[in-house]
Amino acid sequence: MADSPSSAHGDQALLLPCHECDLICEVTIRHDGQWRYCPRCQHPLMRPAQDDQLTPALAFTALLLLTLSLLFPYLGFEKSGIERAISITDAAQELAVYHHPALAVIVLATIVVIPALYLLSVCWIHMSLASPRPLPGSLFLARWLPRMQPWMMADVFAIAALVSLIKIIAMAHIQLLSAFWTFSGFALILLITVTRMNTIGLWQRLLGDLQQPPQARAGKTAQALGLIGCEWCGQLQPLGQSHHCHHCHSPLHERHPFSLQRVWALLITAILCCIPAHLFPIMITTSLGKTEPSTIIAGVMLFIRHGDWPIAVIIFTASVLVPFGKILALSWLCVASRQQQALDMNSQMKLYRLTEWIGRWSMIDVFVVAIIVALFQMGNILTVMPGMGGVAFSAVVIFTMLAAHQFDPRLIWDQQQQLPPTLEPEHQP
Ligand SMILES: [Zn+2]
Ligand SMILES: [Zn+2]
């Protein structure tokens, strides 16, 4: 194996496989704050090199803010002389009280547990990098960092809290308590920390420079050269030699195994879950002895009747348009990736990336229900309970997210038999 090549200007140049189209790209590492993109599909190959001390400091601050958010009350309200304050954990706890433990686990895992594990891992890995000997578990945690990322939904919960406030502001006097501000700060700093993480750079610092196989060449696909690129650390290695990356030990896949079959299976499950998600109530309101179940669509109609158009549009988009749009988009991508005729691959990639990015935002409605159920526990005056629709709807969101992650975008580009010569480094601008 040859070492990493160097460019004419002395900057270190790496040959990196693009995870989304399989093209081997020459990436020059410079501290110029610029992102490096794949010339074929425009996938970001490498984030700019960052100040390494700031990332763990941000992660630690976010952890501190999360701890404070769990210790203090989040929202308070007063209605008919009754005062009540709820904490973040109450939002999950009340769901468990009403026999929806699965929903409680999903809420707690996505807004507290997974983000906390992610931030602790970032701190641990950076401590390991600063110590003379690697700390135990740092490689394992580095492998899990990118896998945890899509399931962190603190920002979605923060937006859901704002939607809940608009929903209930006319019904009760609402107070934003200390944990509201600390949690919003935590969600923001978590986002910044995630944006700063440079996975390839992290692996290089943990395990040293990537080794380049002699046959590796920019402007060709890894598959065409008999190579396979690790999706996580970017190491190129000969095809069929091992099922695990020799650099970071993550599983290696030339293409995701049974990608389309898995996507179809998950999409069919999501479609089946759509039926109870829209037939059963998402929440049940009991006020002065009168019980009123409310489905997702009924909730949207209620907002329209009250003239709350912006909220009606947000809930309708997040709960109806996005999940159905995502199912249709993924189904179309599965069909299109099997067709040999020339299709607009860049449009397919834009649709795939939008599908992958937007999925988690559908959880807004589930979080709104969790907040409202936690707030409105006032006995006979007003009690809100979660309905079966919420559980089924969460399943729709999770199955469509899993389907998007199972789809291998390299299948889209496999239809292109001949690569344009402009992808060779000497033709690139
Ligand atoms: Zn690419
Ligand atoms: Zn690897």
TrEMBL record:
GO cellular component terms, semicolon-separated: plasma membrane
InterPro entries: PqiA-like, PqiA-like_proteobact, PqiA-PqiB_transport
Cellular compartment(s): Cell inner membrane
Pfam families membership: PqiA
Annotated TM spans: 54-75, 102-130, 176-195, 263-284, 311-336, 357-378, 384-404
Keyword Cell division (UniProt): no
Main location: membrane
Record keywords, A-Z: Cell inner membrane, Cell membrane, Membrane, Transmembrane, Transmembrane helix
Membrane topology: Multi-pass membrane protein
PANTHER family in UniProt: INTERMEMBRANE TRANSPORT PROTEIN PQIA, INTERMEMBRANE TRANSPORT PROTEIN PQIB-RELATED
The family this protein is said to belong to: Belongs to the PqiA family.
Descriptive protein name: Paraquat-inducible protein A
Organism: Alcanivorax borkumensis (strain ATCC 700651 / DSM 11573 / NCIMB 13689 / SK2)
